[in-house]
Amino acid sequence: MEVEIANFIKNRLEPNDPLKVIRREQGNQLKVILPAQRLNRVCRALKDTEPYYFLHLSDITAEPLNRKSDKRTHEVIWHLYSHKLNYRLNLAVSLKERKCFPDLSTIWPSAGWLQQRCFELYEAKFSENIDERQSVYPSSFSSQFKKFNSQVDTGGESDDRVEQIK
Amino acid sequence: MITAWPTGLREIDLLPPEYQPSGFYPVGELEVGETGISRFIPRLRHGKQGGKFSIHLVNYRLQERRLLFAIAVEKILEFKGPNPLIRIMRCMVAELLRIIGHLNCLALAGHSVGAFRVASEIGRDARLIHGCLHEMITGGNGQNFIVPGGFNGDIDSSFFDSADEVLTILKNRLSYYKKNLINDSFFIARTRGEGKIDIETALDWGVTGPTLRAAGVRRDLRKDNPHSAYEEIKFRIPIGKNGDIYDRFRIRFLELKQSINIFKQITRVVSGHDYSADDLLLLSPGKIKINSQSHLFGRRIVLAGEKYDTVDEELYCSMESASGELGCYVRVLENNYIEAQLREPGFVNFQSLRRFAQKVRPEDLSLLTASLGLF
Description:
In chain A, 29% of the residues lie in helices and 23% in strands. By secondary structure, chain A is of the alpha+beta class.
């Protein structure tokens, strides 16, 4: 199954496009990292093509800035599910900060608020469908992820919450 | 022609005050046309403290999230357990939480159609079950009862007796609820054919749980992707045909029966014994200290005292809650951090109101809200 899906995605990419496939044994899941400009095409094919029919977009999550060695890179992950295959596929795209991720609300309308939430939690911007005001979270709410990022930004000070627990 | 509702965009609360949880509750702006609602813009409102009932709602939601988080952490850290006893106890807790969720939806349905007596009785039963669960949880270690590795406290044998007694009462009352709510001619007239959702639209908008099953999709994560001991438990998945509001409440009612049966199956195995925390927890309690500054959708958690080999691993884990798919995306970081983000079924279902509320009578909007399990 994993090999078939990976090959199916690979066939939708251009020959020189980078592709990385990671298999998660615990949850019987596959993570595929692909270029942003091909995401729409791949998702449309995954949704419409038999026997995959990834009809359900479960969630959109992201990895905050500063986490990896390349400190200004965002990674957004789309969690898809196929009822027919009972299989979960995680598509990921990495982009430099301030670049826009593709909007998938034309394929899955449920992406709208999930993208908005991703923007408010992780500051990941999407090409459409984003309200710059904080509309999912209250205006007083500052995301844990943003707080964590700001602590890392201030010159390697230790995280006092870790100290507190130890 | 609707005359009771003025046309034009106006904001309404979708839940009565006693159901509004302190974190978020749904409101919307609606525009009414001649054939019903012509435009609906869903919004979330924050920070309003609700009535006493809301405390229960918030608590049981929290326990559902804790349960899923525990399961996700065990999967990603490749814990050897949990042992069969913990697995079966978790099913029991999950089913109690489902029963509370379904009863709350049915109570809200009763409120919405003016069946206040039935609604208050259903609400009372929900509070009774919540009382049993509360007793079990506070008998352990407060809100930290459900933790990765098991349960952080003892379970007294009296819990099984009291829960069994309450569920037996509830089982006997189901016929009363069926007669006075589900089969009531006024309730049927208000709900049948209203707020129809077909399979394709439901899947497009990401709705899950009873809403999707009412549309005719036999999808239940307890069967498709079972956690804990669900593989060993026998139960049926009721599905609907029309996908309307009536079908959604009927599915919830039928699932109540199934949940009670599951609970009875479990109590046959585990009742009559006291269980100490040593039986129910795989790790020593000092190893697990959860620092959670929880929020509805994002939280950061530290499991202290352990070093993990699985840094940078990630996993999406899900379980079936009363409103649909409750998801948890966990990632192991350096410094013993585990980061989790939750997928709330109510959040995804709520945005779909933009589509589903069209052509619904404005007075049925609260029924639609309750049927989608938005709180």
